[in-house]
């Protein structure tokens, strides 16, 4: 049914080359005099910092169009396409009933919406709850899959695709919550904007639980601001898993969901790019979800995100550097690859060399600029009008705390990169636990 998705050839070798380059970049400046040592960082701070700042400063109102407009013109049910909502669920007894009840109450033309849940070998009460819900709701379809079936979330979603035939697919996590009119507005935005895929802004429902959930709520707003800025500058927008609307034909064209990756959304983003599909970003309405509440849970989640983020760059490197992609998108991808993945790794080895040689850190100008741009993006994202859960107010102390929170990426990225080089990868679905907040 689908073309074969890329299996991720020689990731360890590519990761090793990336690691060696970052080790050299972090250590080499310490062989120079102090002025020459910081010169590369000053140049990069101007180039990368300037690009990041221009991305955040872009007037994203030009990208709103269908997003935040009011639709007073009459729209008949014929306008709306058929949609299948797909959820891969494993051990979700705390949220699965709420999810189904809310999805079945969404405003959408009768007979054009179906819900398909893949029970991926749950060992709690999820199968029992789903069996009861299936009796109550006629548009709910349940697929039971062995826990050892393989392919992780991607495998579960590919299984679901063989059982549904809607024109559009909406991927949700089991803890997702949508406003009652979200689906109608999402389809309006997708169709009127000519998008092949749309990612909803992710909003945190438990932001007031502790400082960690507050920072994640701010991080989700910051991420959407940057995404919309990249899109406004003709850059690359990316999917974020929960709350992604996909045209079925686009998924089929790029080979379904890749079962050889730990982040199906990031991988699919690049394959959609390669197929010429257009990805849009929607600020309002958001998809609501739980943030993780402990540092241990954050560490596990961010390791998976970091590994998947690196995997996609290494897997599609030849395409990303070919003449099949325009210069504007290449520049956008290069700048954010360097800021998101190379900078934490280079900074780690810069600090390590500083300690070993008793010299001055060489990359502090770039790090300061990167954190400064992130702080501005935090402020902007938290200041925009938003529906759904309230985003924490960008007060000075909270902004400082949010910027400090980003330091965890400077630990996660080096650790994950070295782990990818040393250990062979066993693809296991390590899901985020949901508690029904």
Plain-language structure description:
This protein has a domain of 195 residues: Alpha-Beta Complex (Spore Coat Polysaccharide Biosynthesis Protein SpsA, Chain A). The chain is α/β, with parallel strands linked by helices and 437 residues long. Helices cover 51% and strands 11% of the residues. The protein has a 7-stranded mixed sheet, sandwiched between helices.
Write the layout of secondary structure elements.
Layout: H1 11-27, H2 34-57, E1 83-89, H3 96-103, E2 113-120, H4 126-136, E3 140-145, H5 152-161, E4 168-172, H6 182-193, E5 197-204, H7 211-232, E6 244-247, H8 248-253, H9 264-275, E7 279-289, H10 295-315, H11 317-320, H12 327-357, H13 364-383, H14 396-405, H15 409-422
Helix pairs in contact: 1-12, 1-15, 2-7, 2-13, 3-4, 7-13, 7-14, 9-10, 10-15, 12-15, 13-14
Query: Mean pLDDT across all residues, rounded?
Result: 89
Spatial shape: globular
Report the sheet-strand fraction.
5-15%
Task: Find the CATH superfamily of the domain at 80-220 and 240-293.
Answer: Spore Coat Polysaccharide Biosynthesis Protein SpsA, Chain A
User: Under the CATH scheme, which architecture of the domain at 80-220 and 240-293 would be assigned?
Assistant: Alpha-Beta Complex
Q: Quick one: CATH class of the domain at 80-220 and 240-293? A: Alpha Beta
Query: Which topology of the domain at 80-220 and 240-293 does CATH recognise?
Result: Spore Coat Polysaccharide Biosynthesis Protein SpsA, Chain A
Give the helix proportion (percent range).
Answer: 40-55%
Number of helices: 15
Q: Can you tell me the residue ranges where pLDDT is under 50 for at least 5 consecutive residues?
A: 1-5, 62-71
Largest sheet: 7 strands, mixed
Q: What oligomeric assembly is this protein in?
A: single chain
Which strands sit side by side, in order, in the main sheet? 3-2-1-4-6-5-7
Report the end-to-end length measured between terminal Cα atoms.
38 Å
Mind telling me the C-alpha Rg? 22 Å
Q: State the secondary-structure class.
A: alpha/beta
Order of helices and strands: HHEHEHEHEHEHEHHEHHHHHH
| Structure summary, number of beta strands | 7
């Amino acid at each position: 049914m689908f073309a074969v998705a890329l299996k991720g050839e020689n990731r360890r070798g590519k990761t090793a080359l990336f690691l060696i380059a970052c080790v050299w970049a972090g250590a080499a400046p310490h062989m120079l005099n102090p002025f020459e040592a910081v010169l590369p960082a000053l140049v990069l701070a101007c180039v990368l910092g300037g690009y990041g700042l221009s991305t955040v400063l872009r007037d994203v109102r030009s990208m709103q169009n269908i997003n935040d407009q009011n639709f007073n013109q009459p729209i008949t049910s014929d306008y709306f396409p058929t949609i299948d909502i797909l959820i891969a669920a494993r051990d979700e007894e705390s949220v699965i009933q709420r999810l189904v009840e809310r999805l079945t109450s969404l405003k959408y033309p009768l007979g054009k919406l179906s819900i398909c849940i893949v029970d991926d070998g749950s060992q709690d009460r999820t199968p029992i709850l789903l069996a009861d819900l299936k009796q109550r709701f006629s548009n709910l379809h349940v697929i039971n899959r062995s826990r050892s079936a393989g392919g992780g979330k991607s495998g579960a979603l590919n299984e679901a695709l063989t059982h549904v035939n809607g024109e559009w697919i909406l991927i949700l996590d089991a803890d997702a919550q949508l406003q009652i009119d979200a689906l109608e507005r999402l389809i309006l935005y997708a169709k009127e904007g000519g998008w092949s895929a749309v990612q909803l802004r992710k909003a945190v429902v438990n932001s007031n639980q502790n400082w960690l959930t507050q920072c994640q709520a701010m991080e989700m707003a910051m991420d959407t601001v940057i995404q919309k800025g990249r899109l406004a500058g003709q850059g690359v927008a990316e999917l974020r898993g929960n709350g992604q609307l996909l045209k079925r034909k686009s998924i089929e064209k790029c080979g379904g969901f890749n079962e050889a990756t730990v982040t199906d959304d990031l991988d699919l983003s690049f394959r959609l790019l390669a197929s010429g599909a257009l990805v849009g970003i929607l600020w309002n309405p958001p998809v609501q979800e739980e943030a993780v509440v402990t540092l241990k849970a954050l560490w596990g989640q961010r390791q998976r995100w970091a590994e998947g983020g690196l995997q996609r760059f290494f897997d599609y490197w030849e395409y990303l550097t070919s003449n099949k992609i325009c210069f504007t998108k290449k520049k956008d991808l290069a700048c954010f690859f360097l800021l998101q993945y190379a900078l934490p790794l280079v900074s780690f080895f810069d600090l390590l060399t500083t300690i070993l040689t008793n010299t001055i850190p060489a990359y502090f100008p770039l790090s300061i600029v990167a954190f400064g741009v992130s702080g501005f993006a935090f402020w902007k994202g938290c200041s925009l009008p938003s529906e759904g859960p309230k985003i924490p107010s960008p007060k000075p102390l909270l902004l400082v705390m949010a910027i400090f929170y980003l330091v965890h990426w400077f630990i996660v990225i080096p650790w994950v990169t070295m782990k990818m080089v040393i250990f062979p990868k066993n693809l296991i679905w390590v899901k985020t636990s949901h508690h029904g907040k």
